[in-house]
Model the fold of this input.
Amino acid sequence: MFKTLSKTIKYLLFALIALVVAIYISACSSFGQLPDLSNKKIAEQFERSPQWDGSYFKNKLAQEPVDRWKAARAFFLASNPNTEPDPVLEVESTDVSIYQNAPESGFRVTWLGHSILLLEIDGKRILIDPVWSERASPFSFMGAKRFYPSPLAFEDLPSIDAVLISHDHYDHLDMETVKRLKEQDLNWYVPLGVGAHLRFWGVDEEKIYEMDWWQQQQLGDVTISSIPSRHSSGRTLSGSEHKKTLWSGWAVNGPEHSVVYSGDTSMHPDFAEIGERLGPFDLSIIEIGAYNPLWRDNHLGPEQAFIAHQLLQANTMLPVHWAGFNLSRHAWTAPIERLLVAAESSDKNSNIIIPKPGQAFEPSSPPQNQRWWPSIPWNGVDKEPVWSTKVDELLEGYR
Done:
């Protein structure tokens, strides 16, 4: 009897190990590939970067360390029934016929949920952080799942000139989407090191432009600038793999229009310098969600996002990084509710556009905001403050 039981346990243990190995192997391609620092060209490129310390990239303003155990408990054990839409959020499909004609003003934006954007600016079409997979995860069966299918089917995408990637986290860099887009003749603008993932997935080396903060490239007569952010990178749970690639935001300046995208970031002083050097902007696109006091130096939160909008010298603000995936424990509508409260209580510019996912608009003639999201309980800044560290002086006069 004991021999039989022992054999059964051995078989079960073997099956479990085989399952774990199979799952890991299935995700290996999605993990991507780290930069090859034995390559002289890549090594020299890294060494020229003020952000590279020889082993990993660092933020200009150091981050408060994240307690991984507390963060895991907060995410998996904290109870909040409102982190995802219930019932499932229904969104309207994007009217693809609009892409048959250029925008009247020369500048149009389609928000596809989370941080997925299609910009049409001064004759160029640019995708930002495109994710068409069902999950922001290396696995097809687990991980953060979309709140709704993409309102713009991949097959309905108009021709694209370029893709901007802010960093290599799964909700911003999606292998399956990259593999589908690589068939098109377009340019890829990415932070230092992220090109290794793209090359691993088959993107043409000559189409990849890896950039450090403040570096610029031309896309015709449109200037694309990599701008500082305060965040991190990495596609596995291994701490040794984190921050081996850079993270950034982007500014796009055309002959007639300009837009700035924060990428994922916490508060930092360079927002003001970005506004001075590259602004003023017609539109700021700023992340407002996935915040938590435990990782307050990784995401802005709504209140600081509104402050960043002011510092960037932008006329209008489009809030993103919400209403797409469940990446924290706050109510899924809390980011936009808190942003509206911050704007209403401020005497600063509060021209905010809140389109429905999939809705295209021209910033010069934006649609009237409608509350398309439900009214559910959410915590304000008094109960769940998210103020980044080391920026008290910067926030003085805004907070």
Q: What stands out?
A: The chain has a mean pLDDT of 92.
